[in-house]
Amino acid sequence: MLVFLQKSYSHPFAFLRFFAAIHSVAVYRLWSLSEIKMSESNQPIALVTGGSRGIGKAIALALANLGVSVAVNYRERAEEAASVVEAIHRNGGRAVASAADVSVASSVQSMIATIEAQLGSIDILVNNAGIAITRGLDDITEDDFDRTIAVNLKSAFLCTQAVLPHMRARRWGRVINISSIGARIGARSISVAYGAAKAGIEGLTRAYALRLAPDGVTVNAVAPGLIDTEMGKPLIDAGIAAHIPVGRVGTGDDIAQTVLLLVQNGFITGQTLAVNGGSLFS
Fold first, then answer.
1. DSSP character for 178?
2. Considering 28, 74, 194, 208, which one is annotated as catalytic?
3. Reported pTM
4. Which DSSP category does 232 fall into?
5. What are phi and psi of 273, to 5 degrees?
6. DSSP letter (8 states) at residue 258
7. Are strands 124-127 and 173-178 parallel, antiparallel or unpaired?
8. Cα separation of 175 and 160, whole Å?
């Protein structure tokens, strides 16, 4: 196992990129001092759900830049997922696009089997898939509620259950769930189902973390504030950024760097890291 210590570099991954460049090597890894037990290829494998755009895309690219093989899950946006995979390939990485509706158990099982055949067993799971249906109290339907809970919360349960056998057998794994500031403040501009689903994600995170810590598997959540994505655009256009203490909206890279921290650290588990520019203190 290669461990790189970069005490003299200002950016935590600067040494990794420099080292890879001067040796013309596509795949190197930067990990913390915790012991990492990976697949037979000695290259970690990650699944990012909803990885074709926005936050998921940024996470997939960031993981690939560290030498992780990435399965980019999508449901409908095949061209965008293919674009992410192509970008990873151009940089010498390994990636595949994985079509699945992660709110359906049979679809998840089929996806996991395909990824294992293409790349190997999954060591890192990022549950990022989500939808935000804009409905007022007088307009939201039962179908809206059920669909939101299924995509934003049930999918995390289904995907986590599917990858746990390998992680527990290896006694190493990382599960990172993408929550939202809406879990804490109610997400007034979106439906009540969205806030409920994201609050459920944080409860699910703690429940899994407690049970899986003895198995070497950490489970954490990241709760973004307003991020410059398609989902965040209406709020950005409404001028909400002016109320963010740091003076800007977040980027996908802000969230991706937080995910990398949780991948590399084996002593953080059961936590929700708020990445919101000071919009909400916790």
1. E
2. 194
3. 0.85
4. T
5. -90, 120
6. H
7. parallel
8. 7
Distances from the Cα of 56 to the Cα of 8, 34, 130, angstroms: 31, 26, 10
Tell me the HSE value of 4 on the side-chain side, using a 13 A CA sphere: 17
- pLDDT tens per residue across span 207-224: 999 999 999 999 999 999
Fold of the 42-275 domain: Rossmann fold (3.40.50)
* Start-end of CATH 3.40.50.720 domains in the chain: 42-275
Q: Give the sheet arrangement for strand 272-275, strand by strand.
A: 95-99, 69-74, 45-48, 124-127, 173-178, 217-224, 272-275
| DSSP reduced 3-state for 256 | helix
Strands 124-127, 95-99: pairing kind: unpaired
Q: Are the CB atoms for 70 and 93 separated by under 8 Å?
A: yes
- Catalytic annotation on 9? no
> Span 188-212, mean pLDDT?
93
Report helix, strand or coil for 223.
strand
pLDDT tens digits for range 78-107? 999 999 999 999 999 999 999 999 999 999
What are the CA-CA distances from residue 127 to residues 22, 57, 140 (Å)? 34, 12, 25
